[in-house]
Amino acid sequence: MAPRPSQTDNAAADSGATRYPVRAEPLRIRDMPARIRPREEMERRGAENVADDVLLAIVLGSGTTGLNVVELARRLIQHYGSLTALAAAGVSELQRFKGIGKVKAQTLKAALQIGVNLTQEALPERFKIRTPLDAVRFLGDRVRSLETEVFWSLHLDTRNTVNQQPVEISRGLLDASLVHPREVFREAVRGTTAAIVLAHNHPSGDPTPSAEDIRITRQLVEAGKIVDIKVLDHVIIGRPTAGERSFVSLREEGIVSFE
Description:
- This protein is α+β, with helices and mostly antiparallel strands.
- The chain is built from 10 helices and 5 strands, in the order ααααααααββαβαββ.
- Strands 2-1-3-4-5 form a 5-stranded mixed β-sheet, sandwiched between helices.
- It is elongated, with a radius of gyration of 24 Å.
């Protein structure tokens, strides 16, 4: 026989009191529709067409009690903000997350390090950025035909050698809420970055800096001093036209002090 509801329960029901919904337990992977399970989704769509959390879930293999592997993968990405930042985390740091033991942390670290190594292999051989033109050349085809503003940071070591691919900070109309110092320096402080060069494009073709460009640059220069990572320049890239230079260096123009 089912237990009778208590007087308190009856009173709450009779009074029309609000009852907060009880959070359902997350679906186990085997209970998910087959088409959205990580392995099945990758097989159906191809590894290059699935989200990072799906790929990460496949590497992790399993979740833990009350947390399936997809949710675990999403929590990791949300916490670190990007796969690059996640790759910089050590094994002991990863083990602090519920559902990640030593073996799983080692597996995850190894998989992400392979990605880092592949990125390093894809870099131009010992590419150095000594001038604004070097920064424009390094970005190369990434800038051509872009119809929206994209803001990058280029990470350099103590010899001004690029140590990773350009880091995309924001995409869309440039403003301070999108280009926050926390996002710009998040990955730089985790690695071997000694300095950064900021760069973004003007889809209009005119590289003349706006008041917002100048304000953001000054803010990031000051933030760099706090975390001891020097901001060397901010290069704004337009579209080349015959006989005209297609970019503006805020350092060269003396618009912002980078010292």
